[in-house]
Specification:
The structure is a single chain. A six-stranded antiparallel beta barrel has the order 1-2-3-6-5-4. It has a six-stranded antiparallel beta barrel with strand order 7-8-9-12-11-10. The chain has helices at about 5-20, 100-120, 125-130, 200-204, and strands at about 35-40, 45-50, 55-60, 70-75, 80-90, 90-95, 135-140, 145-155, 160, 170-175, 180-185, 190-195. With about 200 residues, it is of the alpha+beta class. It has four helices and twelve strands. The longest helix has 20 residues, at about 100-120. Helix 1 packs across helix 2 (about 100-120). The chain is elongated, with a radius of gyration of 19 Å. Helix content is about 25%, strand content about 40%. It folds into two domains: about 5-15 and about 120-204, predicted glycosyltransferase like domains (Thrombin, subunit H); about 20-100, predicted glycosyltransferase like domains (Thrombin, subunit H, Beta Barrel), CATH 2.40.10.220.
Length: about 200
Amino acid sequence: MIAQPEKLDKRRTRIVARLAAENRHFARGELTLSGRFLAENGWEYPCEINDISPGGLSLQSDFQPPLEQDIILMAEELGRIQGKVSRLTDDGFVLLIKSTTRKRDQLANQLTWLMNAERLGLEDDRADVRTQHQGMVHLEMKDGTRFVANAIDISISGLAVESTEHVTLGEPVKVGKLCGTISRRLASGFAIQFDPPTPNAENA
């Protein structure tokens, strides 16, 4: 098992705690996933998740369960999620997620990884990312050197990778569409801290 950097773990813990406390941290449309849900009538219905946070999600579905009904949602990338219907929408309904703090933290981690996968240029498919939290990323150093590394831990603010490449602390690096700096050396690689996003980049 690969040891994770202590500072990155502490930062990730703080981020996960904040995500778990916010029911609508992620903006609508940032992550679209297909799934199915089991209603109390015993039938399964296909659905599409189009807005999700660790505390709740919005589903698009032809079938709308009654308010306050408990349902079980299955999505390949996220696994099994239990919740209660809190609001009906024009094309589906909103589900309030019912889970322990530990499971909610795990969901926050999964969502963070999935929502950053495209920007980082991860080559693994979403199912592999969910189960392994690993994927190959393309890095480019300030001097133009390019190489591929294995991502082993990701948060909103940073990334840890396995790599034999020699890097210097504080050195600028580009990961996919994101820019950052080398923040820490690890036994098997190094950690990258992402640059704070600009307002224009956040809305792009």
